[in-house]
Design goal:
By secondary structure, the chain is an alpha+beta fold. It is built from six helices and nine strands; from the N terminus they run E-E-E-H-H-H-E-E-H-E-E-H-E-E-H.
């Protein structure tokens, strides 16, 4: 089971054994049906159109009711709306924590690089095991000033198409988050690797935000 948990969960010892397994952006906008499309999908015309297309599939006249030339596709339109979970300077990233060993945690295309264009969210079931075995994942919104230079996610180490997949990141190939300490002349910084628990994670996030605090003037 997956659930979004706000940071005040700190202090609840039940999350002590959870492990960081994935970090992703919170999108600023979501794609939703326009009001006109919502109304059409509730109409008698939509139901009749869908039935006609289903009959055509049965007769072998088309392969799917959702083919590229289907009215169910081209008559439906979407638009972007603000994502209520995105808050500038407060919640711009998601951290995913699993309650099973990292060696058993998997997600869609976690062995494909670049992860930022291939990987999906972590599965909340143990992959490859029968019978179906569900486990818990908590998703925690957070913020760091990830500018791609002083504060980096794995995808920020190259201009495009990082060489990393989630499997390798979780095996320690690179930190999920790294912040260089610009106040120090020696090699110094804060790194957050896979496997860290939520309490240690936010201790490090706080240190990063002390080094690079949010400022609306930087936008």
């Amino acid at each position: 089971m997956k659930k979004v948990v706000a940071r005040p969960f700190l202090g609840k010892e039940k999350y002590r054994d959870y492990k960081l397994c994935y970090v992703d952006d919170i999108p600023e906008t979501l794609s939703e049906l326009t009001e006109e499309s919502k109304a059409w999908r509730k109409s008698a015309d939509y139901r009749e159109t869908k039935k006609r297309l289903q009959d055509e599939v049965k007769k072998g006249l088309r392969t799917s009711i959702y083919s590229y030339d289907s009215p169910l596709i081209y008559r439906v339109h979407f638009h972007d709306v603000p994502n209520p979970r995105f808050h500038k300077g407060q919640a711009e990233l998601y951290a995913y924590f699993t309650d099973i060993p990292l060696s058993e945690q998997w997600g869609d295309d976690w062995d494909d690089a670049p992860y930022e264009h291939n990987a999906g969210d972590p599965y909340d079931r143990i992959f490859g095991k029968e019978p179906y075995t569900e486990h818990n994942i908590i998703i925690v919104p957070f913020y760091v000033s990830h500018d791609g230079y002083s504060v980096k996610l794995p995808k920020d180490y190259v201009y495009c198409n990082s060489p990393f997949c989630v499997r390798d990141i979780n095996a320690g190939a690179v930190a999920w988050l790294f912040a260089r300490d610009s106040s120090s002349r020696v090699a110094s910084g804060v790194s957050i690797h896979a496997g860290i628990n939520p309490y240690e994670f936010f201790e490090k996030v706080d240190r990063i935000n002390e080094m690079y605090p949010y400022s609306p003037d930087d936008e």
